[in-house]
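Here is one chain, start to finish.
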Amino acid sequence: MKPPIRSISICLSAITVSLSSFLAQAQKAPDWLPQTEGSYTGEIWSGGSAIASETTFTLNEDGTITGSYLMHEPADDVTGTISACQPVDDLTLQCTWDDIYGTGDLRVTFTEDFSNFDGYWTPEAGLELGFGWNGSR
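Its structure:
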């Protein structure tokens, strides 16, 4: 017995939607993303002053970017992680920062030669007000 044509049409539609969704998720990362990898020395605005820092971006095997940072506060060094980095514009990453003070958003824009980045962090996701975060190789 042959399946009704309507059933075949519904199945093909479901396969097409699933395949389109898979392809959208598997889009190739921008070709500039690997060039962000490395360590940058700079400053993070924290507690009312610019704190010397080192920020490292890491290219993972799956093509994603994560990282870490170290702030040299007067009393002690503070370490943190950078995760969930997504390209949001040409040469710009939107990430999440996390350390002993909390978590929030980090947005950085790299120069065309990837020798520097300028950015800002917010104390929680979605806030418009940001505090400076920069680095140079």
